[in-house]
TrEMBL record, chains A, B:
Zn(2+) 2 binds at D87, E119, H372. PANTHER family: ALLANTOATE DEIMINASE-RELATED. This is Zn-dependent hydrolase. The keyword Manganese applies. Pfam families: Peptidase_M20 (PF01546). It comes from Roseinatronobacter bogoriensis subsp. barguzinensis. GO terms for molecular function: hydrolase activity, acting on carbon-nitrogen (but not peptide) bonds, in linear amidines; metal ion binding. CDD domains: M20_bAS. Its cofactor is Mn(2+); Zn(2+). The keyword Transmembrane helix does not apply. Binds 2 Zn(2+) ions per subunit. Zn(2+) 1 binds at H76, D87, H178. InterPro entries: Amidase_Cbmase (IPR010158), Bact_exopeptidase_dim_dom (IPR036264), Peptidase_M20 (IPR002933).
Amino acid sequence: MNVDGERFLKDLHQLRSFGASGTGKGVVRPAYSSADIAAREWLADRMRDAGLDVRFDPVGNLWGLSEGKSLLIGSHSDSQPEGGWLDGALGVVMGLELARAAREAGGPAVSVVSFQDEEGRFGVTTGSAIWSGGLSLEHADHLTDSTGTSFGAARAAMAHLAQDFVDPARFSGFVECHIEQGPWLDEAGQSIGVVTDIVGIRDMRITFEGAQNHAGTTPMHLRRDAFQALSAFNTALNDRLRNVVTPASVWTIGHVHLHPGAHSIVPGKVVFSMQWRDGESVRLGRMEKVIRDTAAEIADTMGMGLSFSEMLGLEPVAMARPLRAAIADAAQQVAPGKWREMQSGALHDATNVAALMPAAMMFVPSINGISHAFEEDTDEDDLLCGLNVLAQALPALAGAGH
Amino acid sequence: MNVDGERFLKDLHQLRSFGASGTGKGVVRPAYSSADIAAREWLADRMRDAGLDVRFDPVGNLWGLSEGKSLLIGSHSDSQPEGGWLDGALGVVMGLELARAAREAGGPAVSVVSFQDEEGRFGVTTGSAIWSGGLSLEHADHLTDSTGTSFGAARAAMAHLAQDFVDPARFSGFVECHIEQGPWLDEAGQSIGVVTDIVGIRDMRITFEGAQNHAGTTPMHLRRDAFQALSAFNTALNDRLRNVVTPASVWTIGHVHLHPGAHSIVPGKVVFSMQWRDGESVRLGRMEKVIRDTAAEIADTMGMGLSFSEMLGLEPVAMARPLRAAIADAAQQVAPGKWREMQSGALHDATNVAALMPAAMMFVPSINGISHAFEEDTDEDDLLCGLNVLAQALPALAGAGH
């Protein structure tokens, strides 16, 4: 079986013309935008040209189906509000080229998917979460984006294309190629990452409520300053988590809202995001306990009200060993010494699909670790290396699930 | 000379009907709102009834003038967006009653003022700053409020009332009665604060710039997280300022903007407010050095870009000794053992007027120290006590400037 690297790169560059940002190779193609829908219709045409049976499902996931039992390869073609050209798109176009080359070679059977709203305009990996049963369509329809538009209203823009959901029993397994979105492969000068597991995530909002006061007339010792509570919490948390975590654990306070947020007013309230990720559920739980206990202690010491929002989370997911092994063997043949096994610190559609069938992921490097930005990029040699590794692995991948 | 406490309280309650919030005694009467202009026209009528010569100047400061050289008494009648009924209004209505009673008694000559935009819809104590020469009208006209309306456009709503600016040489001195806006008098069960000086203020924005990154794929040791820099700065600053300040010094981080402000993104940039106040210019300077040095050290240690905005500031202002002494003597006669000398931690119109003539301030208690809120209040007994102290002091106050 011969993949066509030139055809693959040409499709990949063509895809970034939908929603081109005008800055480098960046794209603006959020889920259900006109650029996203146009890109999906163009991808559907490419799938038809390759002889695949094209199907849009009720949430806008795009499928290019082979007859009978097949290996599913893909990712997503929606982007962040300011996104790169490869995040998601790479996995979809690589699936297209592999399905096309496999059909030209007379097998094995490969189907292709572009999931919808992986980037979470409405939720987290919304399209694959609904398809895999992790999120009900009824619940999803009431999710809203940052402007208040509901998922139900947004997916209506693709209603004229929609057919039924695709039966997961058609597929023997799922493989997703994605950019790493981290620095490890690029720093090591390696081309391929074989993913061992996708980390789990916990996410909530924490609120400290003190007393709003005049910043001129309220002496320091009488203040109950919500920002000071946040700062003390952060300092104590960093100290205490060190005893619980591994070097691969991460935690982030990325959003902070002070009320009322004025120079001359001691802030009476702060609402902030607390997110943490780890490869093991038990450790995620231990981190949660440290976070809740530390917040309670700070609130108690500083005379603050404390509340936690509902905690959202996804469990860590191990990749299927036979599929992992097939990719690792191929990587060793195609790029000896230039690949490694590694964890995925980001969520992917494979997290959801793994609930239904054996699933695996492969990474290619992100230059300087940059993603979710117009500057996101990968060397063409590495893109082609990724294509060649999966082409080499294809017989074993297709055979593993049968 | 006999002041009429009942008439004074009636006027004070009548004034809060302009822009009444419907919550307690609260008012919504920001500068140049229709409620603010209507309140000023009502005050102008009361001044005319008292036999004063009424004048609005080009920025909407309202004057009730006595013939010849006079003592100026007043404050402001605009309010915060969610304000109390006494902040500013008390000083204006007290000036009105004192001028009225003094005219009835045949002297001394008292004029009244209600400055415009003390609450800083456009600047800081805007109306008195322009009148006193601290802010040029040309510069002020380009200041904008939070909705983008310019000061020039806003003051046009009072253009039909406007005459010339009033000559400061008409006045022998200025006295402002104001609520304390802090907890000290209320906690001590005292009725009168004789202000020794108004603290100085410094205010700027500080920016730390690190690297925006994916919160799942960026390991902790490779992050340059702007929120972490802010937290480390705050912790170090609190430690170091303790060696420089007095118990009356205050510093506040009241506004924090993280970029991009998402749960899943390591924040690459933070812009935050840094404000500090103290009664001595030298100490304000020492605090500034600690703030700048600490920020530079944190930026250096954590690999952050650092920038400071222009620093705004007002110097501490000492109240005029003869006027202070006149108020203190009267307080000792009217409320023996129930008054104290104290600093003002808040800015007031007196800060500006002190550049032109001897100026003094007197505080009455704020219940629970609350101000800039609908709940702001003061016991009627304390309001009347304040009126009686200034009435008692009036001959000495009027004599002091001649």
